[in-house]
Each structure stands twice: as C-alpha cells, then as structure tokens.
Amino acid sequence: MGGRSRYPADVPVAVITDSTACLPEQLAAQWGISVVQLLIQANGRIDDESRFDRAELVETLRAGNAVTTSPPDPGAFFWSFQDAVSAGADAIVSLHISRRLSATADAAREAAQQVRVPVHVLDSATTSMSLGFAALSAARAAAAGAGPQRVMEVADQRYRSSREFMYVDTLEYLRRGGRIGAASALLGSALAIKPLLTVRNGEVAPLTKVSGTRRALSRLVDLAVTEAGDRVVDVAVASVTPSDRELTLVQQLRGRIPRLNDIMLVHASTVITAHVGPGALGVTVAPVP
C-alpha cells in the first residue's frame, strides 16, 4: 500500500484520507497525513494509483482502452490505522471521497471495526482538493491539540464550504466510468461545446456549457472568482496533463481574487484522471475558517 506517512508521535488524533484528495506528497508528509491509495486496473494489471505512470495512463485513455477504478481494500485501511495506533494515536479521523462516487468510505468503516481505538470515518460528499484542504485543516487542528470531535468539526466545516469547478474536454470518460451523475443532461452536445461541472450532493453535476475551450476556461475563472467573493480563500488548480493552461489559470486567479490566502498547483489523482479524461482541469475554492 503506497502513501503511508509517519505519524507525529505527540499528536493523539491521527488524520487519514485517500488519494483522490490530490494532496502533494510533501504536504501530506509535513502534516503527518496518511494517504490510502485507490486502485486502478489498466494494461493488464491492478495496482495503487500512485504506481501508475500518468502519461502512460493518459495514452491508454486516448487509445480507448479499458481503465477501471476501485476503492482500496479494507486491509489497506487496517494497516494505516494500525500504523497510527503504533505511533500513539488515541483516535483516528478518516475522511474520504463522496460515497456516491466511490465505496472508499465503506472500506474504511469495515477496517475500523478491527481497530482498538475509535476510528471516525467521514464521507466528505466531495473529492479533489475540497477533500485535500479539509484533511489539511483537520491535521493542523490535531497538531494544535484538538480532540477528535473538534478535528471532525474542522474537517466538516472545510469540505462543506469548499467548491469544485471542473472543465472537461468531453463527458465521454465520465460516462464510461459511470460517474456522470446529473451531468448526463449535457451528453450529446456538439464537440465544440465544453461542459463546466461541479460536485453537488455528492455527485458530478452540470454548471453550464460554453462554446470553445478558451471561452470555457475563461468562464471557469469567472466562476471561481465569483465563488471566492470577498472571503479569504485557499485555491487549488488541479491538472491532468501538463500544459500552459493550468499556469495561466493560476496567474489569472492570483490576479483576480482579492483575498487570496494561498494558491497551489496540484496533479489530479490518476483515479480522477481516469474519469475526467485528458485535458481536464479543476479549480477548488476553499474559504479559510
């Protein structure tokens, strides 16, 4: 199982999340967050998503070959929980991708029954850096001495107030993977029409559709700026394939959001990549409590 971090020995509440949180590895390690990997099956093998080469997976998708994803085995969670207990944790807060998108939280709950300390499993009803920022806030609260109830409250407040905005070149990959949700209403649009999506009620949902990539990305920025308003916010831009587009988004958001606390560029997890497809971009707006 990849992604297990060393837990701070003096922090009694351990924070665990999953790989769809898109947390940069160094940032997760800095705050002692253990990241349990979802699984990908492609090119004749099944493995932790972190062990798949991103460029190879993108080429597999473009070729139309089958790529499927699945939640972690409960055993992966069990060993992460055990690592936390061995490091001295008295309680564990485990927060995960929406149950309407993945059964990851169910696997965590199954494993939690085998652990001798309380394990609190939270369904974030979202994914990507809305989940990542919540895990970071939870870990910071734990490091400051908060108990499990307060750590859960901090995480809940963060992911409930955050918002995901997604650009995809095509809805075909979401359709293939069965994650299209209410965005199915946009199926059948002309190729030049680019959908903008969000996560609502735990599933992918449509926001609007725009003619042309350039206009769609401009609209993506507008939506994020409007969502931020005059609040202090953290922002993340998640990219699937490296290009200049995500760098342009970062520059535009930095220039237009008046009370920007932090902005980071992250890689979309390869599991998310498998569902949104090549060329997709995401923006997370997370108000700072």
From TrEMBL:
Highest rank taxon of the organism: Bacteria
UniProt keywords, alphabetically: Lipid-binding
Family annotation (Pfam families): DegV (PF02645)
GO molecular function: lipid binding
Keyword RNA-binding on entry: no
Matches recorded under InterPro entries: DegV, DegV_C, DegV_domain_contain
PANTHER family the UniProt entry points to: DEGV DOMAIN-CONTAINING PROTEIN DR_1986-RELATED, FATTY ACID-BINDING PROTEIN TM_1468
Protein name as annotated: EDD domain protein, DegV family
Organism this protein belongs to: Saccharomonospora cyanea NA-134
Source species taxonomy: Bacteria, Bacillati, Actinomycetota, Actinomycetes, Pseudonocardiales
